[in-house]
Each structure stands twice: as structure tokens, then as C-alpha cells.
Design goal:
Blueprint (H helix, E strand, L loop, with lengths): L4 E6 L5 H12 L2 E4 H14 L7 H10 L2 E3 L8 E3 L2 E2 L7 H10 L3 H14 L5 E5 L2 H5 L5 E6 L2 H12 L8 H17 L12 E4 L5 H12 L4
Parallel strand pairs: 1-6, 1-7, 2-6, 7-8
Antiparallel strand pairs: 3-4, 4-5
Helix pairs in contact: 1-9, 2-4, 2-5, 4-8, 7-8
The structure holds cytidine-5'-monophosphate.
The site of cytidine-5'-monophosphate has 14 residues, from helix 2, helix 4 and helix 8.
Amino acid sequence: SNNIVVAIDGYSSCGKSTLAKALAKKLHFIYVDSGAMYRAVTLYFLRNNIDLHNHEQIAEALKDIHLNFHSRDYQTHITLNDEEVSDEIRLMPVSENVSAVSAVKEVRVEMVKQQQRMGQSKNVVMDGRDIGTVVFPHAQVKLFMTADPKIRAERRFKELAPKNPDITLEEVFENLAHRDYQDTTREESPLTRAEDAIILDNTDLTPDEQLQFALDKIEPFL
Ligand code: C5P
């Protein structure tokens, strides 16, 4: 098939989804937020007290989890067994547990399978941690995003604060640092730059500048 895949990987909260959404909108590609899938699985595991060391329980749980995206407006709208969970998956209980859940091999195998299906025949922009390395090693364009950790925490804090009056900048910073540590050191598909991924450090770039940078890389494949 000759569909185009744009893979965007990088650390937590460095603007991957903002860029991915802007690209999808501009190019009329499908946007897939792979992190939302791991978050929704985490929510299910928390609600159902799934023990991360119990492989049988995990396998059963994965069979009972049905995720769907409704990307009508290039935002992440995800349902977990037909329940809209897009807001709840951003809250701290999920953020604090998602890296442990996503380190479980069975979870990754199932999510990767679903993600590959979504990018099989359609033009997609997918963001995550292992998109350019594991999910789509042959993606036409791979970006690896990074930004100063303090800037990242401030950006994420501004996003979360309006809906979470109790949240502190410190707490957000710690969560990002902790997730980055877990994501880069885990056994299964650790976060790492694919050899052929282009680095995009956006510490000093506006969203428009990032969009232009990425469009220039994708243009030759359109
Ligand atoms: O992208 P987001 O920060 O919402 O992802 C939440 C978590 O899901 C990450 O910290 C990481 O542990 C996990 N994840 C992953 N692989 C992906 C996307 C997300 O392990 N492709």
C-alpha cells in the first residue's frame, strides 16, 4: 500500500500531540494518539484492580477492553467499552500509573497490533513512544521531539490547572520526570530515537514554526 505514515515520538509533554493534530488537520490525515490508548487501558486496570504481575488476569482484561477513537475534530475522543473517557484519562491517577501499565508486554503487543491496523491503508499521523521504532519502522517520516523539562512541565501545568485546582507545578514536573525515566528504561520497547528519526527540539519554537518544520519533511512524500 502507498499510504503515508508520520511517526512522532518523544518525551512526555513536549508537544507531540499539538503538532500531530495540527499536521493531521492541515494534511487531512487521521490522527492517532497512541498514549490515549495506554491511558484508557490503565483506567480500566485501576477500576478493575488488575494486578500487573498476574498475566492471566491481564490477558483476560485485555479481551474485555474495547477502545475506539472518534476523531471528528482532530482532538482525542476515545471510548473505553463505549464510555467516553477522554477527560478522565488525563487525571493524576491514570498519569501516575500509565507508565507501569505500558511496560507490560501483553499490553504493548495488543496496542501495537491495533495501532498497526489503523495505519495499514490510511494516511496517519501517530504520536507516542515507540511509533517510529516498533509500530511503524518503515514510516516515511519520523520525528523525535524534545524540549527543556522545565518548559514542558510549565506547558502541561497550564493545560491541567483550569480543570484541576489542586494540582501543583512541582507535582506535574515530578510526574513527567518519573514517566520519562520509566519510559526510557523499561525492558519492552523503551523510548528511544529511531536511527532515521529527525530531532525536533521545540523549546524555543512556536507551534507554527514546528508545523512548518514538519510539513517541509512530509512534502516530498505527498
Ligand atoms: O503520550 P502520553 O503522555 O499521553 O502517554 C502516556 C504514557 O503512555 C507514556 O508516559 C508511556 O508510558 C505510555 N506510552 C507508551 N507508548 C506509546 C504511547 C504512550 O508506552 N506509544
